[in-house]
Specification:
The complex is a heterotrimer.
Chain A (H helix, E strand, L loop, with lengths): L1 H6 L1 H34 L3 H15 L3 H15 L5 H27 L2 H8 L5 H31 L11 H12 L2 H30 L1
Chain B lengths: L6 H14 L8 H8 L1 E7 L1 E2 L3 E3 L6 E2 L1 H14 L4 E7 L4 H6 L5 E2 L7 H4 L2 E10 L1 E6 L14 E5 L4 H8 L4 E5 L2 H9 L5 E5 H10 L3 E4 L6 E8 L3 H17 L1 H10 L14
Helix pairs in contact in B: 3-9
Chain C lengths: L1 E12 L2 E12 L3 E5 L6 H8 L7 E6 L2 E2 L7 H7 E4 L11 H11 L5 H14 L15 H14 L4 E5 L7 H18 L2 E5 L3 H7 L2 E6 L2 E7 H6 L4 H12 L1
Parallel strand pairs in C: 3-8, 3-9, 6-7, 7-8
Antiparallel strand pairs in C: 1-2, 1-4, 4-5, 9-10
Helix pairs in contact in C: 3-4, 3-5, 4-5, 5-6
Classes of the chains: A mainly alpha, B alpha/beta, C alpha/beta.
């Protein structure tokens, strides 16, 4: 295991870099997109609710690999050229955003209706009440489940390997097929994933305690 | 919370121990297959002409598959059964080492690196690496690939070879040939590289594409078996040699490659 | 001039007829107490006044805005109509001072300094200036309700609606809150519509009493004559029950 690590450390760090980059981009955008669709799912407008619902149900019920392949194979053919890393990261972002939307929606709905009425009765618009009163409370509630989504996101970024996204998993496949040492190749990569995900889950636990 | 910090070293230890264990028993594969009257072969499932699953009946079909059936009959007698397990370039060696299959006949080139961990029969097919491009592509041969993106398949040795011919080519590796072909069609790469036999198969399935520039390596395909299985290896070699002598080998070559446009199948004939 | 006008208002929840033929006019500066058994429609009626509940039929005009017209901008109406809830509904993510300052800042765009000065004055008025930087979870129910009243007053409303403001409080807290409400109604000259079960308080503070039962207005009298001699049997029964308890 140490042999593989020292011999291929360059390749592994490149993989680690792409995995982290993809995860950070996907985390940022899935949080924004997820929040937008979570809000769409709870607003009074029936059309918006339908669109929000449809987005979430479709994206979270299709395997991540299928979404990613769509962006890797179909979009370049008909729309624009995107490489494996981009396709994988877009797939990861959209897929994760559906789960984040679902998490945040339940957070919003667990804030009591009285908070909205209290805010509206002072003349705030629906959006002001959302922004200043409901969402801040909802985010606090959803930190633990959101943390799970972030950890899942990092693990799911291994989908990049299937579209030649140069991530950790891709490098593992490549190292395993050059050395024929499957066990140790994947072991090294497993440990490298833990190096990203363990601090992330501890940080989320810390955040949860701090805000509780 | 504190307890969890034990997890990481513990996990690492467990996994390292499993990594060090002896993986395969020293039983004779030849004895085993004779006893069960069955040889389990690892073959390709997505490579036209060599090993492709026919969606109508779910059976693998191709030159490799027919070779495996013929070798089985010659080792076990006319009632011997050949069973097939679909493998990929990436999974075939682990499946062999774990004992899931007795032998691999899956477009596998005999290379010195592979010989360190598994054994090969004598070559049963002489392939060579080439490239597949769109018919309207400006790429004439592998030498034109510098600065272009070349698609290969994980676990195939073709990726290493392309770097020797065109050092500035950008190489991306995909999971299997179907995906690699789709990626080529989507414009994710400028050329697909692997052995010519496989490429001709892809060209048959995808009319807008053709094999260009001839072969730039020699890729002798061998039947792979586990190390130390000398008896079984010899039996395979004997069977292949018999097939070459009595003409069954050439019949199979003509059956699978006779109709492939641009493929000089007669050069593959063996006496 | 009238502040609130109900003309033949009907409200349904599905098949349930929650408000039945409501006709009511409340003038500017009046303090009106709304009483009746639970489920009689008092809270529903109060909540229609600032549009928290919609009406299905009839006309409802509040401070010149027609609530029966779907195009009416409720946000403008609500910035002139305050509401105090049974369960306070303080913003859990904001401290006491921010609870009071938020709406004047983002709805009325009051300059920060003026806003803060006014908020502190209001906190002083309800006796909670020391609690300005505490979170709602750190203060008692009675204190919460006084903050909620201050929050409402910060918008300088023309009309305040109280929806059972003391029903969720421990008995020893009730008086503090009632004193504050009394002070606000007496000193400001604002129009007030109060739903309450506190009869002593009602008698003291109200100019006018409305008795509701089963979604209908049964009696609409000036306070003194209602408590002396209610006209209807239902009101008499209701009062005798409340007083004997």
């Amino acid at each position: 295991m140490i042999d593989i690590f020292t011999k291929f450390s360059g390749q592994l760090f490149v993989g680690l870099g792409w995995t982290i980059l993809s995860s950070v981009i996907a985390l940022f955008f899935s949080l924004i997109i997820g929040t937008v669709f979570a809000i769409m799912e709870v607003v009074p407008s029936k059309i918006a609710r339908f669109i929000g619902r449809a987005y979430v149900e479709i994206l979270r019920n299709i395997p991540l690999l299928v979404i990613t392949m769509f962006f890797y194979l179909v979009i370049p053919k008909y729309v624009m050229k995107i490489n494996g890393f981009t396709a994988g990261t877009i797939g990861l972002t959209l897929y994760t955003s559906a789960f984040i939307a679902e998490t945040i929606r339940s957070g919003i709905q667990s804030v009591s209706g009285g908070q909205m009425e209290g805010a509206r009765s002072t003349g705030m618009t629906y959006w002001q009440a959302m922004r200043y009163i409901i969402l801040p409370q909802a985010f606090k509630i959803v930190i633990p489940p959101l943390g799970n989504q972030f950890v899942n996101l990092v693990k799911n970024s291994s989908v990049l390997a299937f579209v030649a996204g140069f991530d950790l998993m891709y490098q593992a496949n490549s190292i395993a097929s050059t050395t024929f040492d499957q066990i140790n190749s994947y072991l090294v990569v497993g440990v490298l994933y833990l190096i990203i995900t363990l601090p992330l889950s501890y940080y989320m636990q810390y955040l949860e305690k701090k805000l509780a | 919370m504190k307890k969890k910090f034990w997890l990481l070293p513990l996990l690492a230890c467990v996994l390292m121990l499993t990594g060090c264990g002896k993986s395969l028993s020293d039983q004779s594969v030849l004895d085993n297959v004779k006893e069960s009257n069955t040889i389990t072969w690892g073959v390709k499932g997505d490579v036209k002409l060599f090993g492709l699953i026919d969606v109508r009946d779910g059976q693998q079909k191709g030159f490799d598959v027919d070779m495996a059936k013929a070798i089985t009959k010659r080792i076990l007698g006319p009632k011997g059964k050949a069973e097939f397990v679909t493998t990929t370039s990436q999974s075939r060696i682990p499946l062999l080492k774990n004992g899931n299959v007795d032998a691999i006949i899956a477009t596998m080139t005999i290379t010195p690196e592979r010989k360190k961990i598994i054994s090969f029969s004598h070559s049963y097919f002489d392939a060579g690496q080439s490239i597949l491009v769109a018919k309207n592509s400006s790429i004439k041969s592998a030498k034109d690939l510098n600065g272009k993106t070349v698609i290969g398949v994980v676990g195939a040795n073709s990726v290493e070879n392309i770097k020797k011919i065109a050092p500035r080519a950008k190489v991306i590796e995909l999971q299997d040939y179907a995906q690699a072909m789709n990626a080529l069609k989507s414009g994710q790469g400028d050329a697909l590289t692997t052995d010519n036999g496989i490429l001709f198969g892809l060209a048959v399935q995808n009319p807008g594409y053709e094999v260009r520039g001839g072969t730039f390596t020699v890729e002798p395909y061998g039947v792979a078996v586990n190390k130390g299985q000398t008896g079984f290896t010899k039996a395979v070699d004997k069977a292949v040699l018999e097939m070459q002598h009595d003409g069954e080998y050439n019949r199979l070559i003509k059956k699978w490659f006779g109709d492939v446009p641009g493929f000089k199948y007669k050069e593959l004939y063996r006496r | 001039m009238s502040m609130i006008e109900f003309h033949d208002v009907q409200k349904y929840y599905g098949h349930f007829h929650a408000l039945h033929d409501i006709n009511l006019e409340i003038d500017e500066g009046e303090t009106v107490v709304l009483i009746g058994p639970s489920g009689s429609g008092k809270s529903t009626l109060v909540r229609t006044v600032n549009g928290l509940e919609t009406i299905q039929k009839g006309q409802l005009i509040v401070n010149g805005h027609d609530l029966s017209d779907p195009k009416t901008n409720l946000n403008i109406l609500r910035s002139d109509v305050g509401m105090v809830f049974q369960h306070f509904n303080l913003y859990k993510n904001k401290d006491v001072l921010e609870n009071i300052m938020l709406a004047p800042r983002i709805v009325s765009h009051i300059p920060e300094e003026e806003n803060k000065k006014r908020a502190m004055e209001l906190l002083e008025m309800v006796g909670l200036e020391k609690w300005a930087h505490n979170m709602p979870s750190q203060i008692s129910g009675g204190q919460k309700q006084r903050v909620a009243i201050a929050r409402t007053l910060a918008m300088r409303p023309k009309l305040i609606l109280y929806d059972e403001p003391t029903s969720a409080l421990d008995p020893e807290m009730i008086d503090d809150v009632l004193q504050v409400i009394k002070k606000v109604t007496n000193e400001s000259g604002m129009t007030s519509l109060i739903v309450t079960h506190e009869m002593g308080f009602a008698k003291e503070v109200a100019n006018r009493v409305i008795f509701m039962d089963q979604g209908q207005i049964v009696e609409d009298e000036n306070s003194a004559s209602f408590f002396e001699q209610p006209k209807t049997v239902r009101a008499q029964q209701f009062l005798s029950k409340i007083i004997s308890h």
